[in-house]
């Protein structure tokens, strides 16, 4: 068998960009994008992306250049997921909730050559550019055309905007017959994503064409997505490229229902108007759906993929009672999308609803596209016992794991070790049935008197309190114990307000006493990123400012 070797006919580099070519042929007349009164078909989306890629190439954007985008979930944001890498460039979608200083730092760190700017964020980007050091080379700007009549005042900055181009003018000048730039190697970088801000020092995650192709197809298989679904965009496309669903939806010829902003009633309206079949979102979206006032019952089930912290069981049950079929996944910016999910077993349908919710909150087993997953001792690398109790760090290896962190070889080597594993920084356990469950981020484990306390476990008890709307638990310094749990909670508006003592007693009746919060802080709202993740580093700062606990 030694005579066989790779040949051009069987070694074409993997890339998800080719999904768009196929969609234009297989689903050309089907709707690709819906946004307010704007509708495109797959053949139109294909043509627009080719023309935009052509125009980018004509102004000097080429292979390896970083092109940034700051935009909401609008049609242009979707198209740029194809158009930018189609000219060979690296797509960099930035979090719209960041401040001007952070945007400025990230644009400089990435070496961005061009920035596409949603009209609502023009002021933000111009302020960011004004913070560049003198004599710095500024990236070119392209303004996305306004989709409403709102006038956004521009900041008083010393920048020459005379040569700024518009998005639609770029498309008008483009060549629909453009031969898009296929990667020379499937390992070529395709996107650069900065971590979402749950830590104080975001890092630039670089993914290849190969990795993004694998995770896009893998997500469709794992979630059992059929051909031509109707997908509602609640998950920001800037967050890990919407977990790769811009490319995945092209693979199955889906309809992308775009939303600039939303709340519970808006989500239900869009679901009913467009016949939505699938959507993704953080647990905060689940809560939004569960808490919506007088929602109209769903006429058919809607598949909802959620990820991040385990959704509270009461929120899970309320959302499922309304007709949402919820799958709990697990992934990181560094894995490009879902790396594990709670693959549901039919026999679990016979269990009580509360037990089903407990099982569904687990992160589960690796996806088919992720080669291996384990929970290991961080120091020696030995697998922990499969007893659902022994804590360790979740490690992964597979084709969708990032290439590394941009300009940061030390951090890259720290998490991608010589033993072949990517160390996630998440603390978890493996149950006897082989299903993994996240217990905390390694930095969020509270060590009190030598005992490891999972903040997630404490939070799950707090969420069961009838008056608590949201809860987050972090460590507070303690002179005797080293650290003690400090709970930040927001309360529901329509219930009798408990005292701190009431909540502590509630917890003491439901968990070991060493896990009970020694401090309860009432807040109007918990700090979150734009993707709904709790900003625990902010809460840790607040807890530390309280000083050493006295109890």
TrEMBL record:
The entry's keywords: Ligase
Pfam families per record: AMP-binding, AMP-binding_C
Domain AMP-binding enzyme C-terminal: 457-533
Protein name: AMP-dependent synthetase/ligase domain-containing protein
Gene3D superfamilies to which the protein is assigned, alphabetical: 3.30.300.30, N-terminal domain of ligase-like (3.40.50.12780)
Lineage, top ranks: Eukaryota, Viridiplantae, Streptophyta, Embryophyta, Tracheophyta
Keyword Metal-binding part of the UniProt annotation: no
Organism annotation: Aquilegia coerulea (Rocky mountain columbine)
Domain AMP-dependent synthetase/ligase, chain residue ranges per copy: 21-406
PROSITE patterns, A to Z: AMP_BINDING
Record-linked InterPro entries: AMP-bd_C (IPR025110), AMP-bd_C_sf (IPR045851), AMP-binding_CS (IPR020845), AMP-dep_synth/lig_dom (IPR000873), ANL_N_sf (IPR042099)
SUPFAM superfamilies assigned: Acetyl-CoA synthetase-like
GO MF, any single term: ligase activity
Family of this protein: Belongs to the ATP-dependent AMP-binding enzyme family.
């Amino acid at each position: 068998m030694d005579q066989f070797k790779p040949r051009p006919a069987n070694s074409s580099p993997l890339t998800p960009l080719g999904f768009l070519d196929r969609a234009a042929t297989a689903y050309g007349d089907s709707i690709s994008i819906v946004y307010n009164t704007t509708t495109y078909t797959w053949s139109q989306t294909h043509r627009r992306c080719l023309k935009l890629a052509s125009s980018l190439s004509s102004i000097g954007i080429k292979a390896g250049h970083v092109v940034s985008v700051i935009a909401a979930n609008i049609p242009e944001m979707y198209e740029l997921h194809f158009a930018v890498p189609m000219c060979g460039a690296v797509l960099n979608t930035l979090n719209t909730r960041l401040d001007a200083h952070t945007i400025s730092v990230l644009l400089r760190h990435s070496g961005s050559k061009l920035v596409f700017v949603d009209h609502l964020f023009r002021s933000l980007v111009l302020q960011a550019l004004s913070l560049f050091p003198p004599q710095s080379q500024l990236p070119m700007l392209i303004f996305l055309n306004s989709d409403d009549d709102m006038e956004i005042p521009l900041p008083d900055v010393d920048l020459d905007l005379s040569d700024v181009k518009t998005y639609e003018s770029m498309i008008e000048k483009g060549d629909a017959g453009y031969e898009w730039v296929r990667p020379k190697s499937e390992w070529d970088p395709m996107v650069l994503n900065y971590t979402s801000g749950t830590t104080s020092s975001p890092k630039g995650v670089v993914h290849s064409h190969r990795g993004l192709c694998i995770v896009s197809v893998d997500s469709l298989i794992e979630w059992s997505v059929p051909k031509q679904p109707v997908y509602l965009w609640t998950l920001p496309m800037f967050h890990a490229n919407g977990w790769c669903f811009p490319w995945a939806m092209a693979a199955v010829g889906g309809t992308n229902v775009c939303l600039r902003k939303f709340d519970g009633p808006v989500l239900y309206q869009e679901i009913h108007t467009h016949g939505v079949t699938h959507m993704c979102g953080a647990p905060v979206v689940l809560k939004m759906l569960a808490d919506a006032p007088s929602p109209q019952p769903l006429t058919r089930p809607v598949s909802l993929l959620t990820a991040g912290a385990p959704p509270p069981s009461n929120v899970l049950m309320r959302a499922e009672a309304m007709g949402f079929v919820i799958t709990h996944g697990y992934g990181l910016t560094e894995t490009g999308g879902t790396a594990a999910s709670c693959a549901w077993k039919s026999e679990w349908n016979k269990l009580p609803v509360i037990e089903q919710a407990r099982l569904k909150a687990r992160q589960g087993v690796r996806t088919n596209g992720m080669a291996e997953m384990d929970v290991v001792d961080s120091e020696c690398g030995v697998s922990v016992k499969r007893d659902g109790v022994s804590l360790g760090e979740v490690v992964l290896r597979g084709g969708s794991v990032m290439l590394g962190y941009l300009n940061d070889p030390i951090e890259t080597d720290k998490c991608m070790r010589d033993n072949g594993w990517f160390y996630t920084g998440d603390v978890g356990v493996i149950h006897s049935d082989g299903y993994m469950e996240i217990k905390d981020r390694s930095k969020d484990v509270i060590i009190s008197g030598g005992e490891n306390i999972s903040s997630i476990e404490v939070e799950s008890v707090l969420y069961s309190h009838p008056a608590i709307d949201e809860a987050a638990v972090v460590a507070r310094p303690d002179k005797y114990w080293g650290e003690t749990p400090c709970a930040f909670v927001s309360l529901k508006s329509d219930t009798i307000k408990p005292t701190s003592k009431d909540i502590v007693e509630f917890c003491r009746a439901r968990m070991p006493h060493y896990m009970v919060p020694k401090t309860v802080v009432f807040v109007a709202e918990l700090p979150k990123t734009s993707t709904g993740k709790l900003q625990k580093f902010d809460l840790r700062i607040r807890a530390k400012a309280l000083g050493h606990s006295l109890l």
